[in-house]
Amino acid sequence: MANVFITGASGMIGVALTETMLRKKHRVFAVDGRNNEFIGTDLNYTFVLCDVADKDTIVNVIQSNQIDTIVHLACTADNDLDPLITDTEMKKSKLYDKFLYETADKCGVKNIVLTSTTQVYGLQKGREPIRETTPEKGSSNYVDMKMLSEKMLMKALKKSDTIPVIARLAPIYTSEFTDNLRERVYDKKDDVAYIFKEGEYGFSFCCLYNYIDFISGIVDGPTGRYEGVYNICDSRQTTAKEILDYERDHHRIGAVIQRSSPAAVSFNKSKGKSDYRYFDPNASFANWNIDNTRAKRISTFRWNLSNTK
Questions:
Q1: Which residue in 5, 94, 162, 301 is deepest, having the highest Cβ count within 10 Å?
Q2: Radius of gyration over every alpha carbon of the chain, rounded to an integer in angstroms
């Protein structure tokens, strides 16, 4: 049984992770600015209602409970945040990260898992899979915030026994939460679903439960060295046609128009700078093929759009 500390525990990822950790009989210590459904339901669950900037409260929880793994979900765009990432959000994240990492080091925490994003890679025009060594080209407030979090983590734990794990998470989905899928096939400006050609082009997403399985693998303690960056995504891309068919089968999408393919890959940088959910249809044919080979050493990545729950 491990002691797991979860920030952002009332968000979508946090709730799913808590359910899995409690089912595995781990002790969960959770913090968030909102309550959740697990409060008072399990003796292995301790919840503290506080803001992520409440340094004294959070440090006290970590210091008092011999935490084995910290899973850092706060300030993560799992669609609980407002889509506009402001300077205020970025500054808050920086201050929070600093004392959280320092506390992990001082208290001898075994692992810390930082939830980052595959958005750091930006637009990739080649056809090689996007690996952890691929240069970061992302340019947005959210990318800047997560890249700084990554750098601060590696710097803070450079000489520490605490193992840093950076999870670059592709856009997530479940059977009911498909907002991120729809972003790739729905033009909000024209209020219409669209498809290019036969919809054979694809994107890398992450079923929420693939990420939960990965975190479980870290909590359980992998063998060998496992610090560093991991791409977290489904084992294959999901095509535009598959997204449209799935949404149509669930009665969540209406008519679909066929559009002419964009002449060139482009991106509306001004719109995408602050809105982390924004997707430019003209970028549909960019390289969105994320490679998760390294992460498969930790878990199986068995979930996809056809078997998600």
A1: 5
A2: 19
| Distance from C-alpha of 70 to C-alpha of 61, rounded to nearest angstrom | 11
Fill in the amino acid letter for 28.
V
pLDDT at 189: 83
Q: What is the pairing mode between strands 238-239 and 69-72? A: unpaired
Distance of CA 286 to the CA centre of its chain: 21
What integer pLDDT is reported at residue 16 of this predicted model?
96
14 within 8 A of 212, measured Cβ to Cβ: no
Q: Return the higher-pLDDT residue of 266 and 160.
A: 160
Q: In what order do the strands lie in the sheet with 256-259?
A: 186-187, 192-196, 256-259
- Are the CB atoms for 74 and 7 separated by under 8 Å? yes
Helix (H) or strand (E) holding 244: helix 240-249
Closest to 246 measured CA to CA, from 293, 191, 178, 180 = 178
Tell me the pLDDT band of 81, cut-offs 50, 70 and 90: low
Q: How much helix, strand and coil, in percent to the nearest 5, is found in the chain? A: 35, 20, 45
**Are the C-beta atoms of residues 153 and 162 closer than 8 Å to each other?**
no
Q: What global pTM score does this model have?
A: 0.94
The Cα–Cα gap between 274 and 258 comes to: 29
H-run or E-run covering 47: strand 45-49
SS3 143: helix
pLDDT tens digits, 130-153? 999 999 988 888 999 999 999 999
Closest-CA residue to 31 (of 58, 4, 55, 12): 58
List pLDDT tens digits, range 104-120.
999 999 999 999 999 99
Domains and CATH numbers, the chain: 3-174+205-236+290-297 (3.40.50.720), 179-201+238-283 (no CATH)
